[in-house]
């Protein structure tokens, strides 16, 4: 799962790569270019430049000489070897790269300027990425611990985006330390106070990037050790920032969906998971997230008594990953209890890995319900004994209670005759004589209108543009007034009966 | 000092007879005071293992005694206090019993969300094999499955004395029977147009026909000529609600809403 999340993290940057620096630049050039971007971000107080700098991490980490480039970058930013920041970062990189690095930046010793902390933080994130890719989780965890603390103590708004990334790797490192999450002794539990503190400061500082990132990390943390109640409380007590980036929103919705599914609130779970799958990118490195969310969505949909669309399983990106779920859906669709149990036990390791096994076990009752519905649709009158054998239930009494419950829950329209021991199906009513079609229509229209409103709200308007417009409008009015004045002056001697009319313009 | 006192109280608790249970809460609060003196009521990293075992032992006894006294609130409190001990990974003998009882408690008050949340946590932390061979956990799991699919006769069978894994679990049988009875009643209302009283007796697991009539009156059913007739209004009311003609104002309101939205868009 860790890899999936990691992959997902990279993805956002990947998508818009064309906007970032051209991929064929050597990595050290990309890093130094990014310094310029970050400086620009600090000077203009515009986070977009920082985001653009962070976007190139995906390209950088794949470069073969990434460590060399990183060293070169550090030396460019901090030409003095005695600089504390430089020393901290360099200590984490292997010796041999340091030799190479010296030659690369030898000529730049002369320039000396005050570097922004953002540059250091950016390099710190790159070091985190490097350590993670090398599998040096211990070292990374230790470094991240101090690193995030440092970032927090700076309290600079231009650091927020970098800080959010830093926390992400901080949590990731701890997750990879032994003993791994489901265990209650996992180091992830020790990271909770720190993450909560980070959340608190982020909220107080209106730092939405870190707030969103840390909320998601905390949820992930709680869910990984199955502390669902705590996760639920966190959701209830905090507000997820509206302006969070799409990737964070996706993850937040996914975890929320997971919590709600465990709590049996399937309708809400379905809503969250559906938005998560729709918002998540369907191609590229984030495909793992998409698959995972879709798996959970399918199970929740089944639990709600719906059957997912066949076309869902035909998508090339999902076909192989969803095969066990496809079999599962088939079993549930026909209400075949035996096939369902077989499918669940054959694919158990896979389902467990996906964390959907306990949810799938709950499907048993749905399979039975579907079975009852199929019987009720096909027969207008059927004896309880037949129901019992077809559903594979133990006794006739059970069958009677089960059908009675199905009738009560509105799964089927039927009535039972206890003395003769059979179920009589009530003929279907005409749905068009009820308000149901208009309700469905209304739901669709509202969804579309809501989407339009969201689109309008999501548009980005340039800052202070309206002031400019106001100034222009004022100027135009001024001109008009002058014009009017001239006209009045011109006409003044002829007739001044209606000069008041111009005032209003 | 405090340790000896706590051990002494444990002995006293174990030697209590069934009719002396009312004294237990006092003993328990003294035991908890002793634990506080030992600084072991809430476990920390440097609590010695012997103290941990002592503390969880006392709390577990407290939980089981609360169940016997039918004091569910205090049971829940003990259960919550035990959680930090259980997460420290030294399994004590009564852990699954207490957890199973807590699951059953959640089930009997109808908190299915809480039930599944606890179960999910168990699956992850204890692993599948552990849970599947544990009769104390399996019992509530089986009950929940039967309740959810509607095999009420299975629930009835499970609550019989000989099927219950330990005497503490028997306390919940009564509550569970009440739960299933009201479930069956609400199902019957919708499923049968009418029902002979003798059949209703079997369906509802009641002892006599007199009890059936009493039950029927409590639920507002009509009993005459040896049959029970269920009231039908509910369904008709629902049908009327769905009728197009009766709520034309909603349709008008919606259409006006669309018109207004269209105006803002175009």
From TrEMBL, chain A:
Residue ranges of coiled coil: none
Residue intervals of the PCI domain: 250-430
Keyword hit for NAD: no
Top-level lineage group: Eukaryota
Keyword set, alphabetical order: Proteasome
SMART domains registered for this protein in UniProt: PAM, PINT
InterPro entries: CSN3 (IPR050756), PCI_dom (IPR000717), PSMD3_C (IPR013586), TPR_PSMD3_N (IPR057985), WH_DNA-bd_sf (IPR036390)
Family matches, as SUPFAM superfamilies: Winged helix' DNA-binding domain
Biased composition (Basic and acidic residues): 1-17
Start and end residues of each stretch annotated as Disordered: 1-26, 93-113, 485-505
Composition bias, Acidic residues: 489-505
Keyword Hydrolase: no
PANTHER family per UniProt: 26S PROTEASOME NON-ATPASE REGULATORY SUBUNIT 3, 26S PROTEASOME NON-ATPASE REGULATORY SUBUNIT 3/COP9 SIGNALOSOME COMPLEX SUBUNIT 3
Family: Belongs to the proteasome subunit S3 family.
Name of this protein: PCI domain-containing protein
Organism: Zasmidium cellare (Wine cellar mold)
From TrEMBL, chain B:
Domain of life: Eukaryota
InterPro entries tied to this protein: 26S_Psome_Rpn12 (IPR006746), CSN8_PSD8_EIF3K (IPR033464), PCI_dom (IPR000717)
Entries under Pfam families matching the protein: CSN8_PSD8_EIF3K
Domain PCI: 70-246
Cross-referenced PROSITE patterns: PCI
Keyword set, alphabetical order: Proteasome
Matching PANTHER family: 26S PROTEASOME NON-ATPASE REGULATORY SUBUNIT 8 (PTHR12387)
Family: Belongs to the proteasome subunit S14 family.
Name under which the protein is recorded: PCI domain-containing protein
